[in-house]
Amino acid sequence: MSDEDPFHRRLHHIASHALHPDTAQTSGMRRVEAISGTTVGSRNLWMGQTHVAASTASGNHHHGASETAIYVVSGNPSFVFLDDEHGEIRVDTKPGDYIYVPPWVPHREENPDPENEAVVVISRTTQEAIVVNVPDLRWVGPIAVGTKDPTDP
């Protein structure tokens, strides 16, 4: 282990009351970050929470080239995306469920519960929270953020 790399010499503890609210946002939800380049010096990982209030739907958005893993902590959020053949697809979840969102896929979170907030933990394959708010769920590819998809030759 190198003395020049102090990042790898210690663990970082982020208490629940210390989550960082200064991150990319989408209407209808509130994101807070725990693990990022900003909070702990992470190089390749972003992790945080999303809160969706009762009877609320987020705006449509995607996360650019970042893969997103979602773990449902509380509530029964629904995740909505567009399938060319079947139209809008709604995936209803419960605590303990996981959702995988591939790169560039427009989606939105909804919380149909009239009384309780939904809370999920999210993890992304980029150290920063890429959020691109879009007008609808149509997939338009990497051009939605003005960059080339890094997986294309």
What's the SSE blueprint?
Blueprint: E1 30-35, E2 46-52, E3 56-57, E4 61-62, E5 68-74, E6 78-83, E7 87-92, E8 98-101, E9 108-111, E10 118-124, E11 132-133
Antiparallel strand pairs: 1-2, 2-10, 3-9, 4-11, 5-8, 5-10, 6-7, 6-9
Pfam family, one: Cupin_2
Domain Cupin type-2: 51-121
Protein name: Putative RmlC-like cupin family protein
Summary tags:
Cupin_2; 153 residues; mainly beta; Putative RmlC-like cupin family protein; RmlC_Cupin_sf; Bacilysin_H2HPP_isomerase; five-stranded antiparallel sheet; Jelly Rolls
Summarize the structure.
The protein is mainly beta. The chain is built from no helices and 11 strands. It has a single domain (27-135), classed as Sandwich (Jelly Rolls), CATH 2.60.120.
Word description of this protein:
With 153 residues, this protein is mostly beta strands. It has one domain (27-135): Sandwich (Jelly Rolls), CATH 2.60.120.10. It contains no helices and eleven strands. A hairpin with a 3-residue loop joins β6 (78-83) and β7. The protein is globular. It starts with 29 loop residues before the first strand and ends in a 20-residue tail after the last strand. Pfam families: Cupin_2.
